[in-house]
Design brief:
8-stranded mixed beta sheet; alpha+beta
Amino acid sequence: MSLPAEVEVLVVGAGPTGLIAALTLAKFGLQVAIVDSSSRNQNGSRAAVVHSHTLEVLDTIGVAKPLIDSGIRCESVLMRGTTNTLLEFNLSQLRDITEFPFSVLIPQYVVERIFLERLVSEGVRVFTNQTAVGLCQDKRGSGVDVRFEDGNVINARYVIGADGSRSTIRRLVGIEFKDPHTGVAYDDLTVPPSFHIVLADAFLEEPLPEGIPRDKLSAHLNSFLLLVPLYDKKGPEARRLIWRIGYLIPISEPKPPRNPSLEYLQQMMDARNPWDTKITISSVASASSYRVRAAVASTYFQKVGNGSILLAGDAAHVHSPIGGQGMNLGICDAVAVAHAIRSHMKSSDPKQRDNELEHYANSRRKIGVRVVGLTRGLTILLNTGSGWRRVFRNLVLRAVSYLPFVDRFMAQRISGLENRDC
């Protein structure tokens, strides 16, 4: 099937954000096309959790239940020093304010598979191997023409840039992408990162140490080790847990390989395993490493002639993965931008129409900056270092664990429920 010559909305990028934006628009009855530059998921190991507020948003389009059924309910987040519990954020205490007082532990590729199945059921397919190279006002003055590497052109009234942190759409319209706290541009590689992250989806040999929970996300702060139990219930190993392993590599240590091998991952596990029992990695499904940076687009909405360009997901904001906020924020962006476009199309007042899109841009950017601050704080907490600073951090965490209001405050922040009213 060839690319359509004209649509109402063009979504660029077929990750979780782009898929949900297209799905929501299709459910609204709008004419939508979605393209992606690759032929398959090339994200490696990335997101692994869907939080409460995201489940609320997905429930409005009928997608929450299949995610819950495909993942592991997680009712608390465990923070440990070595093997001792310092602090546990109890998500189940939020049952008085949400129908989803838990997170769902689920690999990003499973999330994308569910979204894609729902999108196809709405009669929308993803056009792969389509790289956008140009964008300009069309000759009629009614929208924009997006040109692709193979010479094809799609005309659209709205373009949603959901094409990741190195967004072509963002670059083509000249929107700045900087750290809101330091002002450092995302592409400025002269500024060294504070640390690198290694993430892997791997199978671990049984038996595992008894203290490792199989229904919770657990972070061992002293050794920079993250363990997240996951299932792929439709995969070839449906009956086995696959573990998301995370290592934080300080800048003082050698830079990790871009695609870490099983041998490298095992070496890191041996160095960071706080338990007396050895943890053996039997096989690796995927692994990746990247430097941690933060950036937020200067605006999520820009006019090109009478066409509207909107950003969502990683094209609009990136930050530390600590706290598992990235995919969640992008999914909520996606549903919000679809609602804004529908309202914009229905508006009969030409002077007020763009207010809907500007409200999307301003409110979602406010949330993006807030989440960057949250993940920055969590990252500093994790990356405290050693010696007296580590001892002090652990004492403080242990002390605040006795303060119920702190537990609830952090549970609300991590769950995303504080972003409801923005």
